[in-house]
Amino acid sequence: MAAYWHAQGAETFEIRQLADLERGMDLLALPGGESTVQGKLLKDLGMFMPLKERIDGGLPVFAVCAGLILLAEKIDDPGSRTDTRPEQWFGALPVTVRRNAYGRQLGSFRTVGMFDGKPNVPMTFIRAPAITEVAPQVEVLSTFDGAPTAVRWRNVTAFTWHPELN
Amino acid sequence: MNEEQPDRQELNRNLAQMLKGGVIMDVTTPEQAKIAEAAGACAVMALERIPADIRAAGGVSRMSDPAMIKGIQAAVSIPVMAKCRIGHIAEARILEAIEIDYIDESEVLSPADDTRHIDKTKFSVPFVCGARDLGEALRRIGEGATMIRTKGEPGTGDVVQAVRHMRKMQSEIRRVVSLREDELYEAAKELAAPLDLVKFVHDNGKLPVVNFAAGGVATPADAALMMELGAEGVFVGSGIFKSGDPAKRATAIVQAVTNWQDAKLLAKLSENLGPAMVGINAEEIETIMEERGK
Q1: B257, pLDDT greater than 50
Q2: In the structure, what pLDDT confidence band is assigned to residue B3 with cuts at 50, 70 and 90?
Q3: Among the partner residues A40, A103, A127, nearest to B15 by beta-carbon distance
Q4: Which of the following is catalytic: B70, B83, B151, B294?
Q5: Cβ contacts (< 8 Å) between A80 and chain B: which residues?
Q6: Does the pLDDT value for residue B89 go beyond 60?
Q7: Which residue from A49, A51, A65, A154 has the least number of CB within 10 angstroms?
Q8: Interface probe with A: pick from B5, B10, B18, B19, most Cβ of A within 10 Å
Q9: Are B14 and A16 inside 8 Å of each other by CB?
Q10: Cα atoms in the 13 Å half-sphere on the side-chain side of A153
Q11: Element (H or E) spanning B195, and its range?
Q12: E strand or H helix at A141, and its extent?
């Protein structure tokens, strides 16, 4: 993720603890990984509320895969057990997501498609979530099999695939 | 078997990238898997017996029962890994058939082939393999491994071997970086590793895949030590569920890996964790697992 932003001429730093939030930022990038891990660490290390305030306050956010799950208003995993399924994390994006919607790692895939009006954009899905519902005011930037895979709403741009991997 | 191999290799390396900075925990039951997930594990390794018990039980140790692995897959949303024996193509195919997220071709189990590893390029599912040095790591990557870990000496709770392997690998990487380009042919010969991979290490100063530490990690400090030495994440085997308070220790190790440079936090994380696994001295054991598969 850092390399992706460096390539666009941005400087980056990692947020690993509360003190890191004292540094100024123009954009918050929520990377891929496991949403359960990230959500827990954000809360354990006291970063969740300060970050939520900034996201709600309009800080631009660029979220990928697990980052999208952290932002979604609703997490809907029909197969998963309620005791391990979070209701929501930041809840800042009016969409519903389903985790691991394409199955396990054997379901990971790469394709090309139209993104934000640009054709032939490579899209890498790694144990990706799916967006199953979007509020009417959310702008859909890309789709796969008819379902939205990237969306924009207010200060948030979020992807089920990994733009930083291509 | 797999028509889109180049893509598959890349997708499998990508998944390992997503695990970076995380902790992968050995679990033997769905309950343990849920504790691990709740504590912040980025993946779990499903196995019937953790290495310490494999060591204690002796005998031939094999792939776990697929029913047991499926139980763990159903219990958590994070990736689930499982081990097959070194060179055991059929066990690997079975694990692929149940859609495991990552196969560990592991020296912790009894090797099925004492000279050859699995040709992992023939599989769609990703593989992680152990390595004690750079040559071994690059040989495994050449065979298709998309993630590397140190071998350590599993099931001992003694971190000394993982330290030795990680230090050796990192210092060999630094040496390869320092070579002139026309010296890489000889280096590839010495390392007994594919030339293109040696060139990659020379140009990039790192392995072409993610490199984790494994073997003997039992405390937050052990995990922080491995990160200091260049690991990109940590496997914790027997260390968690052989300890007094697994949930607390697991949480502490996850935070230690995230903030391994913050000694004040490490001090706090190390407080009141209850007894660590007792462990055995790596020098006092009879079965040397790291010698399996080179």
Answers
A1: yes
A2: very low
A3: A127
A4: B83
A5: 77
A6: yes
A7: A49
A8: B18
A9: no
A10: 22
A11: helix B195-204
A12: strand A139-144
